[in-house]
Write a structure and sequence with these properties.
Layout: H1 8-11, H2 17-50, H3 57-105, E1 112-116, E2 126-133, E3 139-143, E4 147-150, E5 157-160, H4 162-168, E6 179-181, E7 194-200, E8 208-214, E9 220-224, E10 229-232, H5 257-263, H6 277-284, H7 286-290, E11 296-297, E12 302-304, E13 315-322, H8 327-338, E14 343-349, E15 353-359, H9 368-371
Antiparallel strand pairs: 1-2, 2-7, 3-6, 3-8, 4-5, 4-8, 8-9, 9-10, 11-13, 12-13, 13-15, 14-15
Helix pairs in contact: 2-3, 5-6
Length: about 375
């Protein structure tokens, strides 16, 4: 936001206009007094040299009257311009105090950062902008009311809103509405310290949008893409957010240890092993325990031979079992098979689960039945 006015430090030796005018008045008064005194002395000397009898009391009374009038006028001008200078200083101080208050009020608002995300893997036709809270307080009701995006049409610009994005169900587009941003580098289960704006465009350099948000002191602001901030005066409270609101997919949420165990694989690297029955039950979930059934292989192990002409090509081994296994059990199962020399190569599951493994030619597939 552009600041107006100048502080005393910024002004340096520059004076207020009223001070410069007052200085001119003082100089003018001094010049007038000097000229008046000089005229009195010269005329008195000249008159006395011609006729000393003409220098009477009336001569001095007349000059005294003129001197009194000149003094009165000078005093009036000095008093008037003194009052003008004092008033100018008071206005300047009030303006400066208002600028300081405005600067303090905007302290948190300036810490909402908007920038374009540049990534070598990003698509030029899908522009992505990041809105970050770099402050130590919350931002409420973070909303992008519209996005003007070049689309190559006759109009040249397409105005996108959150309602239109939801209505048209455009792939990968997202415009935030009533978001709540946590303090910098902080997050909750449903909130994060940043959100995204993603829209389709034919020219990302022509995109324009504003972000409206409320800071922790309840002050409403509008920031344009580019950084200019303006105060928005409102009498409305921050809108109530649905209690069951979920975080938009573009935001990051840290997975809990239980969620990591349910995902299995590399997600459980570095986690403490499950020990108590309660921990296993929380991960497996009560509903799965109620439907528990022993996992068994339901088909023969299928070995697909490699190229007969090339004895170095791995064979593919497929194992099908039912019901589908929880991730950490599957990881244990695949680890046991890896001890026999085979490597996991993927799989699929619905009601049954089939895992495929690469088996080097030197591994005896006949012995896999005892492992599976």
């Amino acid at each position: 936001m552009k600041r107006q006015g100048h502080s005393r430090v910024e002004a340096g030796s520059a004076r207020l206009p009223e001070e410069r005018q007052f200085k001119c008045v003082r100089i003018g008064v001094c010049v007038a007094v000097v000229l008046f005194t000089l005229a009195f002395v010269v005329l008195t000397v000249v008159k006395s040299s011609r006729s000393l009898q003409d220098i009477t009391s009336n001569w001095f009374v007349a000059w005294g009257t003129w001197a009194g009038g000149l003094g009165t006028a000078a005093a009036f001008l000095i008093a008037a311009f003194s009052i003008s200078v004092a008033s100018a200083h008071a206005r300047f101080d009030r303006r400066q105090a208002a600028e300081i208050r405005e600067d303090n009020d905007m302290a948190q608002a300036r810490l909402l950062i908007i920038y374009k995300v540049e990534d070598e893997n990003s698509t030029s036709s899908l522009a992505t902008y990041r809105i970050e809270n770099r402050s130590k307080d919350l931002f409420f009701d973070v909303t992008v009311p519209y996005v003007d995006s070049p689309d190559g049409s006759d109009a040249g610009i397409e105005r996108r809103t959150a309602d239109l994005v939801a209505q048209d169900n455009r792939l990968h587009e997202f415009i935030p509405t009533a978001e709540q941003l946590t303090p910098y580098r902080d997050h909750t289960d449903h909130e994060a310290w940043f959100t995204l704006v993603t829209v389709h465009t034919s020219d990302a350099s022509g995109i324009k949008f504003v972000v409206e948000y409320t800071d922790a002191r309840g002050q409403r602001w509008r920031q344009e893409l580019g950084g200019e901030i303006k105060r928005v005066h409102t009498t409305k409270a921050v809108p109530i957010r649905p209690p069951d609101r979920f975080q938009p997919p573009q935001q990051i949420s840290r997975l809990s240890d239980v969620e990591l165990w349910r995902m299995g694989g590399e997600f459980i690297d570095g986690l403490e092993p499950l020990e108590s029955d309660e921990e296993f039950l929380e991960v497996i979930e009560v509903s799965n325990v109620a439907r528990w059934k022993r996992i068994e292989r339901i088909e023969d192990i299928v070995v697909e031979p490699g190229d007969d002409d090339d004895q170095t090509i791995d064979r593919e081994v497929s194992v099908t079992f039912s019901p589908t296994a929880p991730p950490f059990w599957a990881a244990y199962f695949r680890g046991k098979l890896a001890e026999s020399g085979v490597r996991y190569a993927g799989g699929g599951y619905q009601y049954t689960q089939t895992d495929r493994f690469h088996c080097p030619p030197q591994v005896d597939t006949a012995g896999l039945g005892s492992v599976c």
